[in-house]
Amino acid sequence: MTAHGQGPSRPEELLTVPQVMARLQLGRSAVYDLLRTRQLASITLGRARRIPAHALTDFIRTRLEQDAA
After folding, report:
1. Is the distance from CB of 40 to CB of 55 less than 8 angstroms?
2. DSSP character for 69?
3. What's the domain count of the chain?
4. Separation between Cα atoms, residue 66 and residue 49, nearest integer Å
5. Domain assignment present for 9
6. Is residue 64 in some structural domain?
7. What is the band of 7 on the pLDDT scale with cuts at 50, 70, 90?
8. What are 40-54's pLDDT values in tens digits?
9. Predicted TM-score of the model (pTM)
10. What is the secondary structure of 20-42 as a DSSP string?
11. What is the pLDDT of residues 11-22, one digit of tens each?
12. Is 50 within the bounds of a domain?
């Protein structure tokens, strides 16, 4: 038995651009610039862009480390 929320069967949370905009408090253009410059990882499903939640967490962590340096 595994604890809830652990193990390989847990699907990756995928965020929409508007969700990322809200979490970062940035406009659409700024988020798409981060995606275009590959500072923020994403996947494309058809015509839809999705950002894995861990990619957003990694982006924030990286920026915090850069600002602390």
Report:
1. yes
2. -
3. 1
4. 26
5. no
6. yes
7. low
8. 999 999 999 999 999
9. 0.80
10. HHHHHT--HHHHHHHHHTTSS--
11. 789 999 999 999
12. yes
